[in-house]
Amino acid sequence: LPRCSDIPGSASATTPYPPNPVYAIGGDAMLPFASRIGQLAGSQNVATLIYTLGVSCLNITAMLNSTPLATISPTAFYFEPATDSNGGVVQKTCQMSDPDRVADFSIANAFATSCATLPQGLPSGFSDALGPVLVVEFAVPLTSTQTSISAEAANVTFGLGGASAVKPWTDLGFVNVRGAQAGVVITPAPIIGVPANRWKGKVQKTSATLLADMAASNTAGGDTAEKTIGILASTDLDTHRNQIKPLAFQDYGQTCGYYADSTGTANDKSNVRDGHYPIWSSTHFFSRVNAQGAALNPLAKQLVDVMQGAQALQGLDIIQLYAQGHVIPNCAMHVKRQADSREYTAFRPQNSCSCYFDVLSTGATSCASCKTNADCASAPGGATQCNLFGTPAVGYCELPGDQ
After folding, report:
1. What letters, b where the CB count within 10 A reaches 16 and e where it falls short, cover 292-302?
2. Secondary structure, 3-state, 139-157
3. How many C-beta neighbours within 10 Å does residue 127 have?
4. Model confidence at 13, in pLDDT bands (50, 70, 90)?
5. Are 265 and 241 in contact (CB under 8 A)?
6. Is residue 326's pLDDT more than 90?
7. Residue 328 in this model has a pLDDT that exceeds 90
8. Whole-prediction pTM
9. Are strands 175-177 and 280-288 parallel, antiparallel or unpaired?
10. What is the average per-residue pLDDT within 301-327?
11. Residue 213, class by beta-carbon neighbours within 10 Å (0-12 exposed, 13-18 middle, 19+ buried)?
12. C-alpha distances in angstroms, 255 versus 210, 252, 293?
């Protein structure tokens, strides 16, 4: 493999890489989005993004402790500035040969306070910027007859396991989980009432191995599919619905289960966005700042701003990228959280993209089209603000944001 430190400026690609590397550590859920942004940043001579794969709490502590990336993984990903013949991202692997290289920013699907080593949250000198919402779902093989799980059943199945669990999920060899530092465990842990370090089941190192295990159960025959259950981010589950399916989740106090989407086969994430489905977490981008709160690495901040949707990158519609990748930009949410917990409050983003997200994820919206605020004067429900998105820009009448 090439050395990661040799990638910037290399002439081996169709388009040379920019000579300014930015090192990130993040989970596999954000990798598809980081790869596209890394490709565009490279093609526009902004930066060369080098991405080390980790899990949420490890990513945070690696940032805070300036842990050398080579001690976390011997390899990292980088992305060619030019796309392939189908317009796709060309992802490659390099060797982390620099023993002292640390992350310029980290990505986690958890608040710092959710990590066992950071009960008081971030120390001074670091910032936490919120990105898109990642949805976590309990899933079963497509051939399973199960359709829902309650918080009580999840508590017993993943908290006690074995003979104490809820049928048909009583064999821990078929209960697939991730490690205690993974966002897909940290997110549902406070909701079902089982601490992340006490989950029972077969611990899978990556979402890819968990997916492969569940896919194998789908075709194994007998009662294998019926006994199998797992926990996955929607970024993985929604792209494998030909083999696995989500379970509706009935939270404590609810009278029925809700899918993350309006149905088990939809892609609108409507029940997450309006507060009916509780198992979700915002993506967090952690980076170093000075005493005045200014970023120590301006290039890292620029990439984070792009991922947040706060800064444009030519050729990128960040809302479209997230909608197609099965995560939710904050501008499409109607609820928000202050911590990884069961609690959330109503939320109106300043520049809501809810209607635009509906169009991108479902192909339709009931919102009125507009070009200026004047077009929304008679829009129903007080949707008097015309919000424009995309290129060429399209507008929809939305409710004004919170002050």
Report:
1. eeebebebbbb
2. EEECCCCCCEEEHHHHHHH
3. 18
4. low
5. yes
6. yes
7. yes
8. 0.94
9. unpaired
10. 96
11. middle
12. 30, 9, 45
Rounded CA-CA distance 78/35 in Å is 8
| Alpha carbons 274 and 187: distance in angstroms, whole number | 18
pLDDT digits (tens, 9 = 90+) for 385-401: 999 999 899 999 999 99
For the chain, what's the residue count? Answer: 403
Asked if residue 249 lies in contact with residue 223, where contact means CB atoms within 8 angstroms, the answer is no
Please count the other Cβ atoms lying within 10 Å of the Cβ belonging to residue 10.
Answer: 15
Three-state SS across the chain?
A: CCEHHHCCCCCCCCCCCCCCEEEEEECCCCHHHHHHHHHHHHHCCCCEEEEEECCHHHHHHHHHCCCCHHHCCCEEEEECCCCCCCCCCCEEEEECCCCCCCCCEEEECCCHHHCCCCCCCCCCCEEEEEEEEEEEEEEEECCCCCCEEEHHHHHHHHHCCHHHCCCCCCCHHHEEECCCCCHHHHCCHHHHCCCHHHCCCEECCCHHHHHHHHHHHHHCCCCHHHHCEEEEEHHHHHHHCCCEEECEEECCCCCCCECCCCCCCCCCCHHHHCCCCCCEEEEEEEEEECCCCCECCHHHHHHHHHHHCCCCCCCCCHHHHHHHCCCECHHHCCEECCCCCCCCEECCCCCCCHHHHHHHHHCCCCCCEECCHHHHCCCHHHCCEEEEECCCCEEEEECCCCC
Q: Which amino acid is at 321?
A: L
pLDDT tens per residue across span 197-253: 999 999 999 999 999 999 999 888 889 999 999 999 999 999 999 999 999 999 999
| Tokens read off for 352 | 């809501």
User: Residue 10 has what pLDDT?
Assistant: 66
Note whether 3 and 17 are within 8 A (CB). Answer: no
Q: Which residues contact 253 (CB under 8 A, 6 or more apart)?
A: none
